[in-house]
Amino acid sequence: MEEDIEYSGSGQIEQDNYFIAIDRTSLTVQSAWYSFVLTLGLIGNLYIILTVWCRKDMSSTTNLFIVNLAISDLGILAISLPAAFINDYFPWPFDKLTCQIFVPLNEVFFCVSIFTLTIITLERVRVVCRPFKPRISAKEAKIIIVIVWIVSYLAVGFPLSFLMKIEEPRNYRKCMLQWPDVVQKRLHICFIATLIIVPLFTTAGGYAAIVVHMRRQSARIRARANSVSSDTFTFQRDMLNLQSNTKLIKMLLVIVIVFWTCMLPLTLLALASEFGGIDTTSKAVQGLYSFCKALFLSNSAFNPIAVYIMSSELRKGLYAFQKKLSRHFCTQS
């Protein structure tokens, strides 16, 4: 399967040679894996959204941002994954308008996920390291979420929609991103690279600051307890708060690590193909591209798994939601 690989931003790579022979083995493997990812991701992310939606006591700021992350994951699974799979192995079956609307949404979902994880990090830094400052309310969190979606669409989705074209060499329709010149293409690459690098260092620095602060806080609490009494109400309250923050930070840290582990390989490969001069027609590079792309899209199914493993609160909410659902169906029957 000979094809040229071209970087188009946010970890996407395009094929210049449209009329390609389909690798049946690759098609079978990717079909099976994407079906598994799609099923797991849809169920997991829907459960997160419904669990927080149906329980008012779980409508915390952090949970609202996690729901927003789940919504962007649903978008990737329901829109970007099928569109990418169809465009990779089959002629584009839809019209130009569908190409212009739906394909750029992958960039939008990607940006929403990055911005949401960065905002969660900054919000946690504020809560843990600056506990006496006012916290973000649920209403403010919802406003921030709306702004994130609008900015993400206007920054990447809307401009790219004008560059999407339907190409039909040898009657093989493909929905492709066509740059008017090299300058615009490279400016877009630099912009996307900035969106990737800055949040990466922001989240890493934020959680490093949180870990350092929590270790110092733990040492102060224990020192106070040793000087007074380990049974005091203040000590017990401080330790409960510290333990609660520790559990939440561990969950968020796992989500961030999973996200960057899935996103960075394809992004780095795409940048290398643009600036590194690697042979993009080699089977090794194309195989690596297929693997990195599968990992990129699979993040949307891994996120809810990480959330349920690390969050006892969401697990309890899930059990309560399941009981409520089962009672509803029992009543109907």
Structure description:
The strands form 2 sheets. Strands 1-2 form a two-stranded antiparallel ribbon. Strands 3-4 form a two-stranded antiparallel ribbon. The protein is built from 9 helices and 4 strands, in the order E-E-H-H-H-H-H-E-E-H-H-H-H. A hairpin with a 2-residue loop joins strand 1 (5-9) and strand 2. With 333 residues, the chain is mainly alpha-helical. It comes from Acropora cervicornis. It is a multi-pass membrane protein.
Short description:
Keywords: G-protein coupled receptor, Membrane, Receptor, Transducer, Transmembrane, Transmembrane helix. The protein has 333 residues and is mainly alpha-helical.
Which labels suit this protein?
mainly alpha; disordered N terminus; G protein-coupled receptor activity; transducer; transmembrane
Set out the fold topology.
Blueprint (H helix, E strand, L loop, with lengths): L4 E5 L2 E4 L8 H31 L6 H29 L6 H7 L2 H25 L8 H24 L2 E4 L6 E4 L4 H46 L5 H43 L7 H28 L1 H21 L1
Antiparallel strand pairs: 1-2, 3-4
